[in-house]
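User: I'm putting together a small comparison set for a docking exercise, and I want a reference complex before I start. The sequence is below, and the ligand is heme C. Could you produce the 3D structure with the ligand included, as structure tokens?
Assistant: Of course. I'll restate your input first, then give the structure tokens for the complex.
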Amino acid sequence: LGRWDTCTPPLRTEIVEAMLTRPDRIAALFDAIEAGRIAPSYVSATRKGLLLRHDNPTIRSRAAALFQSEAVSPRNEVITRYRSALELPTDRGRGQRVFERECKSCHRLGDQGSEVGPDLAASLHHAPDQILMNILDPNREVSPNYLEYVVALEDGRVLTGVIANETATNITLRRAEGVQDVVLRKDIADMRSSGKSLMPEGLENKITGQEMADLLAFLVSGSR
Ligand code: HEC
């Protein structure tokens, strides 16, 4: 955490993930968020849910204080609000920068990005309104392959990700940036689906109306 300011976004995501994997590191991360050094938005929706329901009451109440204000509002309201933004004049170049900032860690488009979620080339044929819905309401229909799982290990670590591969003896979890964790089945204490897509809900907290309009202009024009 000491080097936070000098780290790139992918590295920051990994730092936060590493802090949340072990219960004894959570307090230090909360201290940094409370001090305003780290934005709460670095904590994924699934992780926030786990923290808000944590066994430890101190962690639960600190999580409530830190994250409750960011509660996700009803999807239909958000979609209606953003639909009007789509009338704005757009700029593909700005849209590309939004893609690089918020999407590339999980989606491939052209020759950039990671293949954690579907390649977005296929969505170029969809209407902007459909893509807007996919972005703002990812849990409307979740395909089983992209369900996020929470895996608690016997040694106390808690990992999250989609199941990228499984064999008789182990399971591979994949998350943002294409990072994978291979765990032995015999080391798993508990494993359950979060019931949600790995695609994060609440992206409107990170993307303004203008940025969304630019992003859609970029997506429907392809990576040409
Ligand atoms: C943490 C990883 C992650 C991030 C970040 C992310 N996505 Fe996704 N996205 C996914 C996954 C996984 C799916 C598949 C969801 C499903 O089918 O349940 C998906 C699905 C989609 C779909 C539907 C595609 C299809 O073929 O059905 C679109 C469109 C999309 N994402 C766009 C975006 C955009 C634009 C951004 C950035 C603003 C973004 N996503 C950020 C993981 C992510």
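Residues 102-103, 105-107, 116-118, 120, 122-123, 131, 134-135, 138, 142-143, 146, 176, 197-200, 203, 215 surround heme C (CB under 6 Å). The CA atoms of residues 29 and 35 lie 10 Å apart.
User: Thanks, that's exactly what I needed.
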